[in-house]
What does this fold into?
Amino acid sequence: MTSEIRGEWPLYEVFVRGKRGLNHVHVGSLHAPDDQLALRHARDVYTRRNEGVSIWVVRSSAITASSPDEKDPLFAPSGDKVYRHPTFYDIPADVPHM
Amino acid sequence: MPVVAEPEQESEAQLEARFEAVINRKDRVEPRDWMPDAYRRTLVRQVAQHAHSEIIGMQPEGAWIGRAPSLRRKAILLAKVQDEAGHGLYLYSAAETLGVSRQELTEMLISGRQKYSSIFNYPTLSYADVGTIGWLVDGAAICNQVPLCRTSFGPYGRAMIRICKEESFHQRQGYELLMTMMRGTDEQRAMVQESVDRFWWPSLMMFGPPDDESPNTARSMAWGVKTHTNDELRQRFVDMTVPQAKALGVTLPDPELVWNEERGAHDFGQPDWDEFWDVVKGNGPCNAQRVAHRKKAWDDGAWVREAALAFAAGDGSDTSSDTSSDTSDGPRTA
Ligand SMILES: [Fe+2]
Ligand SMILES: [Fe+2]
It folds into this structure.
């Protein structure tokens, strides 16, 4: 939120892929003077115990976010499309593998 | 005035109601949500104090890294102290989502405007203290922190989850260290007992003042920031620790400590709360030393922070020659 004040290192968001086959997931943030050091810091801060096989870092200021909460109109289109979820459909309990 | 309909601004009351609804259904508050100023202030204070405790907490144990009795113990202690640095960083980044900067937080610690846990104002006089801190201090921290994984502010809870995963190593290495010493000579056993005698009461103080002297607890619980009172957690800690002390073969220095069949819990004595408040006010054995050390590290590191920024502000030609791209498979390898 308040970054780059009085010579503070910029804020980066850190994303870690836990293992092959998984998406990168946001794990937290850190300060670093540049991208290279952000990666190194991310390794030390967020993967001291083999928590990841790959790290992404991105300047927080480069992220565009939707507005605050899920009441936001951006999510409204999917809010009323419950038929997109498997539980919308009643299937008899004795039908296997559904 | 333009005739275009403005998106309706929510009133303070509506925002407040929505916030309350999130709290009541035990959902999480996230950084960009509207939240009452008092909630934000409470969290900044609590998360910052927690972060500072992790950072200052590196000092008493760090003092023994160079004097650890074996390479194995040294490697363990290094890893433990490094974890505490990591805990501090997770928590600072959680605090920052509330709108304070990292630099402000550090300055508030150094200037004494924000506190840290008073346990770290006690000295580590013998190597046994490394074990006792792991067992009792990290043990008490675990009692405090496990319920905080479900605290109402999302980033704080997520930081706590990461921290709790790492704490059990801290407690176990400490307990194992003490067990090893208890299997040693009479002198070593005496060292352990002496250390436990010094750290027992300050460990109980880690849960904060008794409930009837903790005016903010009720509000923090209503907001879901805290989920248990200080006295509840203190009781839980005592009940967990008594059998561990027995297995270790040490005596906890409290003549009033006794199992209460009726309550199904231990009765125990009260720490010296005058001492507690005195240490909080800055008069503990190491307060000045701890803050001075942190300030020195901050001041001594200033040129590094500035040089790194100056380097990054250059044309970056140095980084483009770096061929290591194995750490990222992102859209753009740095
Ligand atoms: Fe910690
Ligand atoms: Fe710890």
